[in-house]
Amino acid sequence: MAHVGFNHQMLEATVKQPIPFGSFGGYRRFCIYWWGDLWRWISGGWWRDLVAFWHRARYGWAPRDCWNLDHYLACVLGGTLCHLAAHTDSAPVGYPQQEPTDAETAFEQWEADLTRWGHALAAYARDDYYEIHGNDYEAWRKDEEARLAAVQAALRELEPWFAFLWD
């Protein structure tokens, strides 16, 4: 399944994006929202950031991740699936359920599918609609629907092989 409308280099860069450590930023410097964020961060936000960082390191998630859990899970799972594709040593027994083509082995197909699933999840986690489409909200909606459809298809295909996601 090709990633229609997605830039492959942007997907690769998205997979390598770290989860933000702090809550400060995200706005144009020195605009009114930036000053509000600066004040919240100075007046105790740094402590909440530190607690969230500790909680995420200890348990793999932080309460602030629940605000947009689909984005957090898509970001983490997309990156780990692409990493697994690059570092896996074998394919699950019986993969794929249908015979691979003559040109590829089950292992090559497993790597390709892991990468495709990872890119679909990473594309869903990106929030770059404005950078791509500007104020064309109809294009935003179509892009968002395409990303959601790609994630749903990837998760359906991934589900039978979920227990085999190991290196």
Structure, explained:
The protein is mostly helical and 167 residues long. Helix content is 61%, strand content 0%. The longest helix is centred in the first third of the chain and has 28 residues. The chain starts with 7 loop residues before the first helix and ends in a 9-residue tail after the last helix.
What does this entry show, briefly?
This protein is an all-alpha fold and 167 residues long.
Which secondary structure elements does this structure contain, and how are they paired or packed?
Elements: H1 8-15, H2 32-59, H3 69-87, H4 106-125, H5 129-133, H6 137-158
Major sheet details:
none
- Low-pLDDT sequence parts: none
What separation lies between the terminal Cα atoms? 24 Å
Radius of gyration: 19 Å
Number of helices: 6
Outline: globular
The proportion of strand residues reads: under 5%
Order of helices and strands: HHHHHH
Share of helical residues: 55-70%
**Domain module count:** 2
Give the structural class. Answer: mainly alpha
Strand tally is: 0
- Average pLDDT confidence is 82
Entry keywords:
single chain; 167 residues; 0% strand
